[in-house]
Amino acid sequence: MIAQFLTWLQHSLGKGPAADAQSWSEALLGSLNFWNLLEGSHLIGLMLFAGTILVVDLRLLGVTFRGTRVSVVSDRILPLTVFGFIFVIVTGLGLTFAKPLFYYHNIFFRVKMILIAIALVNILVFHSRIQATQDSWDAAAKPPGKARLAAAASLTIWFLVITCGRLIAYDFFECGKPHSDFINWAQECKTSEKGEVTLAGKRL
Amino acid sequence: MSMNLEQFFPHARPWVENLANTFPGKYVKPQFAWWEIGHILSLITLGGTTILMNLRLLGAGITDEPPSEIYRNLRFWQNVGVIGIVVTGILIGSANAERLYDSAAFIVKMLALLAGIVLTYGASRPVAKADGAVGLLPKIWFAIGSAIFLLGLWIFAISDLVNVGVYHIITAAALLVLFVARGRLRWVYLGVMLVLIAAQFVATHIVYRGDDYAHLNPVNKAFTVIFSVWILGCAVAQIVRAGRTAEGGALPRIIAYATILVWVMGAAAGRWIAFA
User: Fold this and answer.
1) Helix segments in A61-177, DSSP class H
2) Which of A43, A55, A68 has its CB closest to that of B267?
3) Main-chain phi, psi angles of B3, to 5 degrees
4) DSSP letter string over B34-82?
5) Which of A20, A76, A138, A154 to mutate to probe the B interface, most B CBs <10 Å?
6) Which chain B residues contact residue A77 at CB under 8 A?
7) C-beta atoms of B63 and A76 within 8 A
């Protein structure tokens, strides 16, 4: 069902009646410069988004800005972080739209999406539970264990998200190459354009 | 027109070609992806700390603390970022030397790195440490760093196939001015920017066909100049309107703009090495 939708997205959406017509997705991928601009913007957006998250998390860990209230650091920096997040999401969606099937059958992309979901849950937990008591530790040089744990989790998750993001470009686990049953299953190679190949070399 | 290292050092090709087969290149190559991730993480660390330190000089960001306090808290992490990009950059460069040797974007990246280090350590950090006071030495370093920055920007802009990457710097500058500008200036600035973006879209999608490069090229170049002039003009207006504050006058703000944008140029050029 999802694979069918993505196939339509990649090959049919926006395609005109002409024989050599391209879908919008194909046009984006084949564009002279736009795809490159999107990818470069995604990286530069990361400098703002992840770079500012790093500083907020370091404050929560009690590593930096120890003499500044946590609320001051987060209130001043988080608008930049949120803007950076929106920027990387928009550019990321554009990149995904250009090659939806490639990303759908890429294990690093799948892990990245799961990690982003976990990171968002971590943010929700932080805002709903840990931040509820912030008044009592707002000025503390070293915030309580729960806050530090959430910050450490945030740093770890975003580190892994960025790692997976970069690894998407590498063909270590590309469908159509011999892989273990788990890898073939995890990225649904059987429904991919390149198919599934087992470690024994059997094409399914 | 395009520039690459081969034009300056044509006899170095055999040595460059062999770099990937010698230490450290041949040891880096099998783990190239991991060193590349280290490079990106360092860039992010450098980006976050540089943006916050220089936004403070622009009167934005963590304004509850003086610039010297921002500097004191971020300098270590900024050092981590700079050392990280240099070390990982040398390693991935040694495993990928031939590509860099032929790349115009690599020259831009190296000039951005040099200008970034000069502007960060020679101007931005000393000015932040002194809460906006600009001594003679930071002025000299700023002049040197800016000259290298502008040389890199010029090479970026005139180099075939990679010159579109200049739009990353224009976009970053546009967003920076939007974030820092206040009051009516911000809204006028944003309104005109949106009109210009719409006008460029109409000119490059409706007036001329998408494959009519003979017309699209000059149109896009004209819009690049118009965007740049508008952003630069509004940045100057923002600097003048902000006047003289506790964090100093115009020069600290100009230093802050330049220091943020030079690292954006480095990141953009680095990405365009892979594209052309």
Assistant:
1) 70-98, 100-104, 107-125, 134-137, 145-167
2) A43
3) -120, 140
4) HHHHHHHHHHHHHHHHHHHHHHHHTT-SSTTS-HHHHHHHHHHHHHHHH
5) A76
6) 52, 61-62
7) yes
Tell me the CB-side half-sphere exposure of residue B164, using CA atoms within 13 A: 20
Cross-chain residue pair A39–B271, CB shorter than 8 Å: yes
CA-nearest residue of chain A to B56?
A76
- Nearest Cα residue in chain A from B170: A41
What is the number of residues in chain A? 204
Distance CA B165, CA B145 (A): 21
Residue A187 tokens read as 């990225």
N residues, chain B? 276
CA dihedral sign of residues B156, B158, B163, B166:
positive
Using CB atoms, pick whichever of A51, A73, A167 lies closest to residue B44.
A51
- Nearest Cα of chain A lies from the Cα of B84 at a distance, in angstroms, of 14
pLDDT in tens, chain B (276 residues): 778 888 889 999 999 999 989 999 999 999 999 999 999 999 999 999 999 999 999 999 999 999 999 999 999 999 999 999 999 999 999 999 999 999 999 999 999 999 999 999 999 999 999 999 999 999 999 999 999 999 999 999 999 889 999 999 999 999 999 999 999 999 999 999 999 999 999 999 899 987 888 899 899 999 999 999 999 999 999 998 887 666 668 999 999 999 999 999 999 999 999 887
Q: Strands, E, within chain B: which ranges? A: none
Q: Give contacts of A86 with chain B, Cβ < 8 Å.
A: none
Structure tokens belonging to residue B46: 């450098």
pTM, rounded to two decimals: 0.94
Tell me which of B79, B159, B217, B271 to substitute to probe the interface with A (most A C-beta atoms closer than 10 Å). Answer: B271
**Tokens 């050029």 — which residue?**
B269
> Longest C-alpha distance within chain B, in Å?
59
Q: In which residue are the tokens 């950059």 written?
A: B89
Beta-carbon count within 10 A of A120 CB:
12
Q: Is A64 within 8 Å of B45 when comparing Cβ atoms?
A: no
Residue from A43, A161, A84 nearest B270 by CA:
A43
Q: Are A103 and A25 in contact (CB under 8 A)?
A: no
Contact residues for B96 (Cβ-Cβ < 8 A; gap 6+): B20, B32
Indicate the domain borders of chain A. 2-6+23-170
Among the partner residues A41, A47, A65, nearest to B43 by beta-carbon distance: A47
Q: What CA–CA distance (Å, rounded) separates A78 from A75? A: 6
CA atoms within 13 A on the CB side of A57: 24
